[in-house]
Amino acid sequence: MTYLFLPRIQVQAANALATAWIINATPLFAINMFGHNLGRKIGAIPAGVAVIHHDAQLLGEREGKGFYGRMHPQQRRGASFIDRADYSSKNQHVLSLQPTASCHLLLSLMFAFETSIDLEAVNTFLLSARIAGGQIIDYGKPEVLGDEAALRGRLRTGFWVIERDDLMQAESDPLAAVVKAIGEKAVPANEGDLPNSWIVPTVLGYAALTPFEARAGARGGYLHAYGESLVGLVQYVSVRDYGDRPLPLWHYQWIGEDVFVIKQKKGAER
Hints:
This protein is α+β, with helices and mostly antiparallel strands. The chain has helices spanning about 30-40, 120-125, 150, 165-170, 175-185, 240, and strands spanning about 1-15, 15-20, 20-25, 50-60, 60-65, 70-75, 100-115, 130, 135-140, 145, 160-165, 200-210, 225-240, 250-255, 260-265. A hairpin with a 6-residue loop joins β5 (about 60-65) and β6.
């Protein structure tokens, strides 16, 4: 296995609106699709990607003092002052608005490949690539590493983003499991266990609600289906606490004909 290490990628104004009810700075699904796009451009699809989180800044203002004040995300205008066709339907003197939430990110990404990698093609791709709609404004020198030991030697700070599907299975009601997991206080970890802290919900896939078929306006002429997001739980674990556990590689896969997910364990593929 060959590893491509992309250190300290700075992403400006990435999408933070994971679903209509979740705002976070953990765009794992978008990162996996970024890896797929990278693979198409360089002619080698990655077998998986591991994510190191360094920093994130949600763009907006807080009401009240302290971190726990109410958050008001920055918004963008959804129209221009050209004609009245784009104005708000409720107030003809106000521009229409598309609710959104954005964030700045600082990440390191590690891609696993089963073939050789063209670093020149990687650098060309990064010049115009985006992650979760955010512009890549800076990044460290990409490296190709021959083994996992060399890769781990490059990691000194940051937090692995790992899957916590075990917490979703703790309750019969998935929504109750999410609320319980993110609401519990952190408890000290037993020796050898990971700390139970920094749990967040995020989008880990999509399920089709309608059949795939040709529809007007679909990009590239591809078959189109309406779908809904699938939310799961992930955890930020410091490099130090994670230790020498197996590299937490994310993979994408189909489950049946209508569900597409990302996981850290390989399942039955389409």
